[in-house]
Amino acid sequence: MIRTKNRRMMFVFLTVASWMCVLASVGTANADDTRRGFYVGVELGFANPSDLTSTLFGVNHPTRCDRLLYPASSIPPEIKNHEDCTDNTPRSLSNNSYDLDTGFLGGLSLGYTLDRVRVEFEYMNRSHGGDSSSLQSPGGNQALISKNSEWADPPSERISDFIAHQFFVNAYYDVLNDSRWTPYLGGGFGWAKTSMRYNNRFLRKPTGEYLEIAFDPDWDREAKKEAAGKLSFWDTRISDTTFGFQFMGGLDYALTERVSIGVKGRWAKFGDITHGGTWNRIRSHDPVQADGTTPFTSKLTLDDIEYWAMTLGLKYHF
Fold this sequence. Notes:
The protein is mainly β. The chain has one domain: Beta Barrel (Porin). The protein contains 6 helices and 13 strands. An 8-stranded antiparallel β-barrel has the order 1-4-5-7-8-9-10-13. The model is unreliable at 1-6 and 20-33 (pLDDT under 50).
């Protein structure tokens, strides 16, 4: 929904900017088309990101397979050798989406003007608040679906503290005319160093409620007591550098021969982020799989990293 809205806004803005460029191009024969020189700029504004989507991958066994839940770590053979307990194939554990808040966007630029064309190096920084979402489990992961009755509250995932440092090379076409107004269109490519915090949480019901769950197949009562009330969670900091591109349109107003102010709209999109690591705790014990020794690791993929932004800018031409 948010992603579609952003693209519509992008289309409308660039359409309006294009028409402004066409209208401004009328009468440009008398315009000064021999501008040359460096300029510096600063921008401040707000960025509205699309829904960020995630996919969590990992090995997941039914709770009854955990050897550390049994007395003296002795798991019954009928469970130890069951195919559900020995299948170590990584699968999708969840698919989720996060509606991050509209955030602050600011940056600096250094460019060179050559007639109607400008080339620019740009640094932008943006940050967004977080969002929590109940765990969305894909239909194919039966080990996770079978645990739905075990949770004290719905398992959840959260993204927070989103920060991106962006470095771009941009090119613009200015439509010069006899007025102080200069509409333009542009595009660029570059990289973003993106970081955020991710965490999930799986809390089982307390002992009384947990023992009332009808497990099929059933398993040891003492092991159930050991599993009751236990917490599994992964709290990690994600950081990755990805390629991106952007399209821009705007309008500048010349205050003096050297100083101009303006408004700019942009739409930017970046590549997927992949992050792997070991969980903090599994059923309140060390983060190991059901065999009691293999580290419990997962891989998280984040995509749909794009945003729409509006900024106010100030340029100084040397």
